[in-house]
Amino acid sequence: MTSFLADRFSYVFGLGKSGRSALGYFQKQNLPVKAWDDTLETRQVLDPTLLQDPKDVNWSHVERIILSPGIPHEGPKANPALIAAKDHNIPLVVDVELFLERALRHPNHTIVGITGTNGKSTTTSLLTHLLNHLGKKAIAAGNIGTPVLDLPETNEETYYVLELSSYQLTLLKTPRLDVAILINITPDHLAYHGTMEAYVAAKSSIFEQVQHQKGVIIIDDAYTQQIYKKNPFLMSISTETEEGKISIHQGILKDKERNITFTLPTLSQLQGSHNAQNIGACYGALCHLIPETFCMETFIEGLQTFKALPHRQEIVAQTNQVIFVNDSKATNMDAAEKSLKTFQNIHWILGGEGKVGETPASLKHLFPHVKHVYLVGSSMDFFEKEIRGLIAYTRSHTVEQATDEAFHQSQKGDVILLAPACASFDQFKNFEERGSVFKTCALKLVDQYHE
After folding, report:
1. pLDDT computed for residue 451 by the predictor
2. How far apart are CA 100 and CA 116, in angstroms?
3. CATH number of 96-305
4. What is the average pLDDT across 373-402?
5. 428 contacts: CB under 8 Å, gap ≥ 6
């Protein structure tokens, strides 16, 4: 922890989950701290003595700013307060940086960082589950589960598995990761990063935070392939071909360096090629983390006992006619594509707050899997123009209406799929709320069906 000069304080900017955690972290240590959030409702629940409007801040007294992920600090949409802070050369950090600084005091802590456009949460949860299954104490944190600064400080041997976003990676400076994993890169968050090049740079920077060159990269897309060419020390894994040092292709895992070939069992909770990426990433990480004790049979047992995360190709209800699949976490076209590949005879609920440069027409090669599209949310008009003449669709406006219409148009063997390919903020607080609304509607329709 940096020592603080007299009359200087940390400034927590943004009071979401991680911001509130950081604020509490400083308070527990009796370190001077002030905070701010642009949302009035958020500020109203805070002790007024802790608040300081950035317009009133004397920046010469600020030691550093702890920034909530997602608040732009660069480019045309940068927050004015952060521009002012940068003019005063004030460091911007995220809560994960503080956690990594703390971890420098604990050499018996093993820290894994995981990033990628899609699959971060599943890989983080799966690796944590596998480590615990293999007899290690492992905790998932970061963008998933407990905020890192809420984790108790301990000298106990512990594996911390951190889900890291591109927002966080742009600000990390402490190379304390023992293993770094990059799953995939497809266009996303361009409104924040400004360019695809900046987004790729943020994702690839995870390998600058790793010690001893222990990195794992899935080389299934052009961006990760280019990163691997520049960093050939990385453990490369492929799921579309057998090109990597390790491959999971057509259900067969091949590890060329260890001379292992193994047929993976069918895993209903880890279906699809995207989950092959998640499994491959975990296998590679375990080869780095516990090479002496890693056992393939125990690895398979761990896969079979894993429970999939909610809102990720989650079967939430079914009748003898149809199944309802909640993939609300599919917040971009690439994630939605994975669901469309997994299922057939789909009634696809599509839409929400669209992302820059993304169009459902890019997935027309999978339209043969889709029987009907139900458009919802603020992207509805744009998406309608994009798919008109390519596929049958209905303007449903809301998830509730779309679910009802899809059910009443479905036939035996159909799949009603919520894979919105969009952010949720036009109609919901987050993707979890959107998925829960879909699940509630599905269960109500199933109850009516069985009456």
Report:
1. 63
2. 20
3. 3.40.1190.10
4. 98
5. 434, 437
Give the strands of the sheet with 215-218, arranged side by side.
138-142, 158-163, 109-115, 179-182, 215-218, 235-238, 246-249, 252-255, 260-263
Average pLDDT, the chain: 93
Question: Which part of the chain has CATH 3.40.50.720?
Answer: 9-93
Say what angle helices 273-289 and 120-133 make with each other, to 10 degrees. Answer: 50
Q: Which H or E element spans position 115?
A: strand 109-115
Task: Give first-to-last CA distance, the chain, whole Å.
Answer: 62
Q: Position of tokens 């027309």?
A: 364
Q: Which CATH class is domain 314-450?
A: alpha beta
Question: Considering the entire predicted model, what is its pTM?
Answer: 0.84
What is the mean predicted confidence (pLDDT) over 62-68?
95
Higher pLDDT, 221 or 5: 221
**198 phi-psi bin (left φ>0, alpha ψ -120 to 50, beta other):** alpha
Q: How far is CA 112 from CA 178, 180, 183, 329, in A?
A: 6, 6, 13, 23
Distance in angstroms (rounded) separating the CA atoms of residues 118 and 331: 9
Instruction: Name the residue among 222, 245, 128, 133 with its Cα closest to residue 179.
Output: 128
- Distance CA(89)–CA(102), nearest Å, equals 23
> What tens digit of pLDDT does each residue of 5-51 get?
457 899 999 999 999 999 999 999 999 999 999 999 999 999 999 99
CB proximity list for 429: less than 8 A, separation 6 or greater: none
Query: What's phi and psi for 368, nearest 5 deg?
Result: -60, -20
Residue 221 vs residues 200, 225, 235, 236, 438: alpha-carbon distances, Å: 12, 6, 15, 12, 31
